[in-house]
Amino acid sequence: MNPLDTTEFKKQGHMIIDFLADYYENISNYPVLSQVEPNYLKKLLPSFAPSNPEPIETILEDYQKHIIPGITHWQSPNYFAYFPSSGSTAGFLGEILSTGLNVVGFNWISSPAATELENVVIDWLGEILNLPKSFLFKGGGGGVLLGTTCEGILGTLVVARDKILSKIGSENAHKLVVYGSDQTHCAVQKAAHIIGINPKNFRAIKTNKLNSFALLPESLLSTIENDLKNGLVPCYLCVTVGTTSTTAIDPVRKLCNVAKDYGIWVHVDAAYAGSACICPEFRYLIDGVEDADSFSLNAHKWFLTNLDCCCLWLKDPNSLIKCLSTTNSEYLENSASDSKQVVDYKDWQVTLSRRFRALKVWFVLRSYGVDNLRNFLRSHVEMAKTFEGLVKMDKRFEIIVPRKLALVCFRILPYGKKVADGKVTNGEAKLIGKKVANGKVTNGEAQLISSEDVVANEINRKLLDSINGSGDVYMTHAVVEGVFVIRCAIGATLTEEMHVIKAWKVVQEHADVILKDKNGSIFV
Amino acid sequence: MNPLDTTEFKKQGHMIIDFLADYYENISNYPVLSQVEPNYLKKLLPSFAPSNPEPIETILEDYQKHIIPGITHWQSPNYFAYFPSSGSTAGFLGEILSTGLNVVGFNWISSPAATELENVVIDWLGEILNLPKSFLFKGGGGGVLLGTTCEGILGTLVVARDKILSKIGSENAHKLVVYGSDQTHCAVQKAAHIIGINPKNFRAIKTNKLNSFALLPESLLSTIENDLKNGLVPCYLCVTVGTTSTTAIDPVRKLCNVAKDYGIWVHVDAAYAGSACICPEFRYLIDGVEDADSFSLNAHKWFLTNLDCCCLWLKDPNSLIKCLSTTNSEYLENSASDSKQVVDYKDWQVTLSRRFRALKVWFVLRSYGVDNLRNFLRSHVEMAKTFEGLVKMDKRFEIIVPRKLALVCFRILPYGKKVADGKVTNGEAKLIGKKVANGKVTNGEAQLISSEDVVANEINRKLLDSINGSGDVYMTHAVVEGVFVIRCAIGATLTEEMHVIKAWKVVQEHADVILKDKNGSIFV
């Protein structure tokens, strides 16, 4: 057995390329959201690994027959769920080249090119984002390619924690407070828990629709002041540019100004929206980032870089290295590291082993060029405008928050605008509220929002399930201020305007059916 | 611009497959360890990303000219450094198929097959490792494919911490103690720091050569007892099966027995050696694992699975889920998750986004079959035996610890066995010690080990630098009990007996030159 026999490698490699090309060619024919039932696969596969080799043809046949039906097709042009995972030929090529090299670039010596190309693309990306020089290697800062934003948040949280504990003593760890809004990604709360922040000391500061769910500086200020009064110690603030639910944009500069006075580490999480900031017209979204300590975006979301790739920049990488460098590891020492002339990325991240992610970013930037990348992102924003326009033209629907980039948040109003205007009679509303309360929504929850919204939520949930059950498109939802909204996130690489127009038709068709049910079970 | 144009995807994809096949074909012609100088790449690449697209041919030309010289070739048959990163055609194919699908499998619904195939291969692997049923899904336990062992350790540490803090209160977090040996991987100490364990409370319990650097149960016991006397709270023990420096094997069962009495979470880290345990004759290495709480190995090390892939099993996955599940994330909720009939792997790991790693494990197991995989690992052990035999035949060298699997730890003795036997006169030894102390080694350190060892360390360091500088092979080092040892880790996929024999010749040739220098500068 030679598992790297060149002839076999070539033969099977070409086979998979053709297989994947066929996949992209036919991707629209698959239901976007997998329609399998839980535990479908166990029944189809043997309980034990085979003792003897099986030919690649058999494995691919099983793949097509058993795995593909269980795939939710993130690369489908009809995929509008969560945020995109936008792959590309260049991203794919860079990734598979890295997979072929299979180097473990934990320190410089283990593959100098893996480290140095990462330094280069971090500065290239920083330049096109117009990040302040202080975040770039060429300006004394620097950055790293991680797997996900979660890792970036975890790492910077540790730095922020250790900085403060070095002053107030580790016995005061339970006093540290981490700030975000009620729209901040759950990764922050999870990372805070992991590093030992008291769960009671995570502040999900309330936002509201009136302010498009952005974190208000005055809310932050009063929360901090209140914590100080209670003897707590402010530690870390996550400012989000483009929240998951609605792409809310926290005002970076103003929030940094508040945080600065209290010595709080500010991380700007632009996981989704950051990519758009390479377009001058969207760069204002991160204005003020020069006052933050760290900044990150996910190139695997909306930058044509196949999963996974989070880009993290810091003004003071040494603070990160101080916290995350390994000790007691003589087996990793070498003269290049001793010289202090090189970057050892193991000291910039939680894990030791790391893949050569810079290759795919390099391939994407060079294969498409910055001008085309900008235009590509703009095309998604234009398509989102189109979709938003279509929603607005249908009086049965409302846009929940003004669209910022390529995410449209909308919902259907089961009684038309009448309900939204609050013209439904009390009697009706009560009845409806009660019925729903017997279903999924508890009485407690139901009381928090209007009876109209309770009904609307149920209808929209039903509408979304109906849309996704069709397999024609896949959208997901969010709940903001108790209101269930349908999210249409445009950004899959293959999506064109015709797909967006079709998606809207699908929504309308399913809405027609559901609204006809108005006199059916739910509304009796 | 269509970044997923099928024709281009096919054309460029085939090009990269041929490119990689050529790479494997010619890999022996490259210096194994990259010979570039720090910061070589910055000078070769432009300072800014290109505005316009560049053809794939140009990018690949630059790759060959600028990146390849900066690569340390982990796939080279002459690679014997660290531990292997053993790629294979099947591992590669599974990985690129996953890269092409580009799904983000954070929860079941986001691609049921990604989750369910992971469940299947976790049980398949568990069966061939003869893990107790309690670690398998089919036995009420379960597992997950992570990027690296570091993530597995971090996650289980959080569980152990929270379990104890739920009893003693989080204000006592500073009392928790984490145990390992002075041979335990640095990842444990780093993870303990990340989750907020007081750095003073990480116990690197001393091991010694007499016991092949294994952690002794009695040492653990007395350390625990001492901590308890001081009012501290034992929390977590990392038992290592196959340490990085010398493949030391901590006695699993006995250590679990000690830990059990104190309610300590036991994690068995078999990152390297775990793969070998699929062979019945090596399975004894993890005997007693049934008494541990969690167990992990890196399939990307010695299981033909391209980077990255750590397999983690737990008896009580719910304890992990309880700690790592996300809250406040309505946008991730769905009826499949609500039904509790599915696994949502986001709750089993630190990060949210995750790649479809199960595919490559499935491809490896099916393409090669378990019997061949066993024989393949055995062949590496046999080659290591050959290498060990060659070292033993040369009287100038000594084996530092008895070989366990496919890692041979050896060193040259500059004065021949005479020095090892301690027959050098005091006068000479002093003189030598002094000279070295003027060089790299401080007086303080020099006092810890014998003067002979100080000299031997310098010579072996010089020998290793000389070997690696040749580009013919790449080995790395470790330091145990102050002694510098050269590590020859056999396991690169392409390595055959002839490479091992050649590697030994390279060592001997460089030793010849260095020992001729005996009357040169160092020995004057």
UniProtKB/TrEMBL annotation, chains A, B:
UniProt GO MF annotations: carboxy-lyase activity; pyridoxal phosphate binding
Keyword Glycoprotein belongs to the record: no
UniProt cofactor(s): pyridoxal 5'-phosphate
E.C. code: 4.1.1.-
Pfam assignment, any one: Pyridoxal_deC
GO biological process, alphabetically ordered: amino acid metabolic process; carboxylic acid metabolic process
Gene Ontology cellular component annotations, sorted alphabetically: cytoplasm
Keywords in alphabetical order: Decarboxylase, Lyase, Pyridoxal phosphate
Residue positions where N6-(pyridoxal phosphate)lysine is found in the record: 301
Enzyme class, first EC level, given as a word: lyase
InterPro entries from the UniProt entry: Aromatic_deC (IPR010977), PyrdxlP-dep_de-COase (IPR002129), PyrdxlP-dep_Trfase (IPR015424), PyrdxlP-dep_Trfase_major (IPR015421), PyrdxlP-dep_Trfase_small (IPR015422), Pyridoxal-P_BS (IPR021115)
Gene3D superfamilies per UniProt: Aspartate Aminotransferase, domain 1, dopa decarboxylase, N-terminal domain, Type I PLP-dependent aspartate aminotransferase-like (Major domain)
UniProt similarity note: Belongs to the group II decarboxylase family.
Name of this chain's protein: Putative carboxy-lyase
Taxonomy of the source species: Eukaryota, Viridiplantae, Streptophyta, Embryophyta, Tracheophyta
Gene behind this protein: 25486293
